[in-house]
Write a structure and sequence with these properties.
Elements: H1 5-37, H2 40-66, H3 80-108, H4 119-146, H5 149-176, H6 182-209, H7 217-226, E1 233-242, E2 245-255, H8 260-277, E3 281-290
Parallel strand pairs: 2-3
Antiparallel strand pairs: 1-2
Length: about 290
């Protein structure tokens, strides 16, 4: 499969740029409507969108810096900036969920929360839901396409905002029908779901930062190598990730009577087969002679 780094960078930069713009619009509009209507629910949403804005800015700059090529000080590139960003965004999500649960407890214990409901309250929440769904889908698509944990974390922030906006919308309807606990109950379940997803995302970011081998790739590398007749055997296959890039190191054995040029051709063939099977990889192969009995 053909891989183009410049196209990847352009898509990632574009999707994260528009996420920053969306986060700025959502934060400012919720803050204005929340202050004019004195709605605690909408002001809470403004604070949540403010965290999303911080996360979106982090993702935007993380994606830009992680695409920088390797240099003398960073021999393996800057890809892990994305993983650090994903881990930090996970912490922001957990902080948000902690705050939501705190608000749920206060409201269920009987704290009197006054919410003013008007047409602008519904407009800003419905608009927020539409924009958040659009951004989360766009981010998720690019995150899956290029294996970007930072963009995936940003997508999770926007999808979380969808749920919290729905909770506030339910709360506004509940106030209209004098049932103010509906939003608190819904908020608690949303927070539990987000905490579970956040832990999984955070664990994956930590695994990459600790150079844990990605699942399934080693077996596929062994399978591809075994199909090349000139390779007697392969061993010491080491795999790790850095951002969206996968780094592969391996030893292959070839017949000892081959010339250096021929052995190099074989290693080049192995590299080509791996590049055809994986996107965005960096391969280092060490050749060893296989002595004949």
């Amino acid at each position: 499969m053909e891989y183009n780094k410049s196209i990847e960078n352009k898509e990632k930069n574009r999707v994260t740029y528009w996420s920053v713009i969306a986060a700025i619009f959502l934060t400012s509009s919720k803050l204005i409507i929340g202050l004019t209507t004195n709605s605690l629910g909408i002001l809470s949403e403004a604070a949540h969108s403010g965290l999303d804005l911080i996360a979106a800015l982090m993702t935007y700059y993380a994606v830009r810096f992680s695409s920088k090529p390797a240099d003398e000080d960073h021999n393996f590139g800057h890809g892990k900036i994305e993983n650090f960003s994903a881990l930090f965004e996970t912490l922001l999500l957990l902080i948000t969920c902690g705050w939501i649960i705190g608000e749920v407890i206060k409201r269920l214990l009987g704290e009197n929360i006054h919410i003013t409901v008007n047409i602008w309250s519904y407009i800003v929440i419905v608009s927020s839901i539409i924009i958040d769904i659009s951004r989360s889908r766009a981010l998720k698509k690019v995150a899956i396409k290029y294996n970007s944990q930072a963009i995936e974390a940003d997508a999770l922030h926007f999808s979380t905002d969808v749920y919290s906006s729905l909770v506030v919308f339910i709360g506004l309807i509940g106030v209209y029908f004098s049932f103010t606990y509906a939003d608190s109950i819904a908020a608690f379940f949303v927070a539990m779901i987000v905490i579970f997803i956040s832990f999984n995302l955070g664990k994956r970011a930590i695994d990459v930062l600790l150079d844990k081998a990605p699942k399934g790739i080693k077996e596929k590398v062994e399978e591809i190598t075994s199909q090349i007749p000139a390779v007697v055997k392969a061993h010491d296959i080491k795999i790790r990730s850095a951002g969206a890039q996968t780094l592969i190191e391996m030893n292959i054995h070839v017949k000892e009577n081959l010339t250096i040029d021929k052995a190099h051709e074989i290693s080049h063939e192995v590299e080509q087969k791996l590049h055809q099977s994986f996107d965005n990889i960096d391969v280092h192969i060490h050749i060893e002679p296989e002595k004949e009995d």
